Amino acid sequence: MKIPVLKIDQFQESESLNDLYINSFSNHIELNKKLIDKPHSHNFYLCVLFTEGFGKHEIDFNSYQVNPGKVFFLKPGQTHSWQFDTKPEGFIFFHSQEFYEITFLDHTLHSFPFYYSNQNPPFLELSPLKMDVLKPKFEEVFAEYQQQNLLRELKIINLINSIYIDLARAYTSNVNLEKLVSPSYSMILEKLEHLIHQYFYKEKLPKFYSDQLNITTKHLNRVVKKTLNKTTSQLISERIILESKRLIIHSGNNLAAIADTLQFSDYAYFSRFFKSKTGCTPMDFRKKYTS
């Protein structure tokens, strides 16, 4: 079974705008339960604020608690699923990259720390004070979406931008801004993550990526160390392991076929690599996860 990749136009709602969807969370779940009752990914950027309810949100095999005041962010391609213990409530919106960046030509979505890198946590815990500021903004953008007022789309995108700015400030509230990495390092990391996503099946060594970026392998490692405190090899391995887990759990293929898909020379090599990074074999991981 292949992981479904959901598109914005698959979701049911009323007054639609191109490349944008906004809803209350309870209504979103009710209208689209057949789409989202199993693990899936998206081709868009997603933001959700919870005001009520408890449960679990699994993103790329990491589990996070759902509770009032929690905000989640998802980038295209991330696999996730929900499991709720009590009825959830809040607000959700998602949009394409173009919907945002065509309006803000000089400011990309990756400028926001929660969309900047897959290495950054995909959630934020709002304090009661921050909730008092942000909840009304989510309510306002939802209300605007439901109406047909003059300059509706412009109002909505400016509200979303204001929400993102407030969320980014809360997200980085404990970060010393003077120690943030330089824009040039951020740009290299962004390009590196894109290249790894594009080529990791075949290219598993840092030199390929440094060549693509026209920098030395030593400088690339310096950038990754400075920005993420990791090595380039770690980033490549983490992407391979993530895809391995997705295929082991969701594809239904036998493990030898998965090793072949990931372009390992044989299953034994793949199994050793997987165990060295996760502490268990692919078979053990499948048994543990499916049980």
Written overview of the protein:
With 291 residues, this protein is of the alpha+beta class. It folds into two domains: 5-177, Jelly Rolls, CATH 2.60.120.280; 183-290, Homeodomain-like (Arc Repressor Mutant, subunit A), CATH 1.10.10. It is built from 13 helices and ten strands. A hairpin with a 2-residue loop joins strand 5 and strand 6. The longest helix has 20 residues, at 152-171.
Secondary-structure topology with pairs:
Blueprint: E1 5-6, E2 20-24, H1 25-31, H2 33-36, E3 41-42, E4 45-52, E5 55-59, E6 62-66, E7 70-74, E8 80-84, E9 89-95, H3 97-101, H4 113-116, E10 123-125, H5 128-146, H6 152-171, H7 183-199, H8 206-212, H9 217-228, H10 232-250, H11 255-261, H12 267-278, H13 282-290
Parallel strand pairs: 1-3
Antiparallel strand pairs: 2-9, 4-7, 4-9, 5-6, 5-8, 7-10
Note the main attributes of this structure:
291 residues; alpha+beta; Jelly Rolls; Arc Repressor Mutant, subunit A; 2 domains; 5-stranded antiparallel β-sheet; 3-stranded antiparallel β-sheet; 10 strands; 49% helix
Sheet with most strands: strand arrangement: 2-9-4-7-10
What is the arithmetic mean of pLDDT? 89
Element-level helix/strand string? EEHHEEEEEEEHHEHHHHHHHHH
Q: Describe the main β-sheet briefly.
A: 5 strands, antiparallel
What's the structural domain tally? Answer: 2
Q: What would you report as the Rg, rounded to the nearest angstrom?
A: 20 Å
Number of strands: 10
CATH superfamily of the largest domain: Regulatory protein AraC
Helix content: 40-55%
Question: What CATH architecture of the largest domain would you give?
Answer: Sandwich
Name the shape in a single word.
Answer: globular
Tell me the fraction of residues in β-strands, as a range.
15-25%
Secondary structural class: alpha+beta
- Report the CATH C-level class of the largest domain: Mainly Beta
Measured distance between first and last alpha carbons? 18 Å
Poorly predicted parts: none
What's the tally of helices? 13
Enter the CATH topology name of the largest domain. Jelly Rolls
InterPro entries: AraC-bd, Homeodomain-like_sf, HTH-like, HTH_AraC, RmlC-like_jellyroll
Pfam family, one: AraC_binding
Keywords: DNA-binding, Transcription, Transcription regulation
GO molecular function, one term: DNA-binding transcription factor activity
